[in-house]
Amino acid sequence: MQEDMASLKLDLILPALRAIVPALSASRHKGQAGKVGVIGGCREYTGAPYFSAISALKVGADLSHVFCTQGAGTVIKSYSPELIVHPILEESYEMKKEKKEVLDKVLSEMRKWLDRFDCLVVGPGLGRDPFLLDCVSEIIQEAKQKEIPLVIDGDGLFLITNSPELVCGYPLAVLTPNVNEHKRLVAKMTDISGVSAAKTKEADGNDLASQLKELAKMMGGPTIVQKGKEDHISDGVSVFSSDFFGSPRRCGGQGDVLSGSIGVFMGWARAFFAAGRNEGATFQVEERLSKNPAVVAAVAGSLLLRKAASNAYVHKKRSMVTTDIVEQIGTSMEELFPVGI
Ligand SMILES: NC(=O)C1=CN([C@@H]2O[C@H](COP(=O)(O)OP(=O)(O)OC[C@H]3O[C@@H](n4cnc5c(N)ncnc54)[C@H](OP(=O)(O)O)[C@@H]3O)[C@@H](O)[C@H]2O)[C@@H](O)CC1
Ligand SMILES: Nc1ncnc2c1ncn2[C@@H]1O[C@H](COP(=O)(O)OP(=O)(O)OP(=O)(O)O)[C@@H](O)[C@H]1O
Ligand SMILES: [Mg+2]
Description:
Belongs to the NnrD/CARKD family. By secondary structure, the protein is α/β, with parallel strands linked by helices.
């Protein structure tokens, strides 16, 4: 383990994490517990944006939207009546109008909603169509101007690996790379920074955790959750490892549950910090838990996903799939963040 990496103790961090979760109360209106937008869903992938968006609702957001392509829209709607689905994106192969016209239309549709979101999750099942990614780059830039938090996952990481300037310097971004995505990001950033060939070679090695803080520093703002057997989380200042619970099943889609969950915690943590409530006694319990809301949200999301995966595994063992994890989010939330505390 890296020297300055803090291994979090559950009993010490739980009071602080519980403090950011809003109370349930009849005096709160719809939307106050969170509105999340997921940008993803294309010809190939409809499961990933669904997992991310439905997880956001089950963690406790009031509204969860998906922005996807036409073809994916009907499919995602059929998975769940809970999601608000906007089939506004277009891939090159299905485009019948000029690119500029389509881009303007996508942006004008997106602008109707953008201000309302507490967080945008960009990338689960987005695909890699170049035109679609150009549209998403524009959306990211508008979201940044409005200071909307971003969780970047899946093909969103492919996009920002090719164009890191989209998120470098933006502290309201959380990047959630898996091992492959992390290696690609390290290679790109070391290349840009002119780090020596020897260092770049390190990016191919297994010691990814030790590169994490350096990577986060190079990106100068975003918090990075490097997913794996343990999740390592860094904003370039602190590095935490989250090795709570988890399961030995590696079915696809667990990262999508994580991204949607972090999206909700990000909105909650930001509101909590903005109100200055992190200065209170509860939040001092674990001094080492960061004062950066993005890090707090990442730690909470990782803890929850790993708890839900562990619970699902107890019931389903080898047949456990991501739908089983989604079903366990409610129980896991209640075990970690009981209503009424
Ligand atoms: N149901 C759905 O709709 C889902 C859709 N999804 C969406 O798919 C899109 C692409 O995402 P991705 O994760 O498949 O792409 P990427 O990271 O390039 O991995 C590709 C290959 O790399 C390998 N590999 C992966 N992890 C590794 C590891 N830890 N250690 C070592 N190797 C590892 C492994 O290769 P293999 O073992 O097959 O050779 C893997 O197959 C993205 O939009 C995402 O959101 C998913 O969310 C799942 C559910
Ligand atoms: N070897 C492991 N042991 C225990 N938990 C793991 C392991 N690998 C990943 N996880 C958990 O699963 C989560 C998702 O990580 P994973 O590497 O599967 O992401 P991903 O490839 O992006 O997933 P997805 O299939 O959704 O795209 C991590 O946050 C981590 O908590
Ligand atoms: Mg993924």
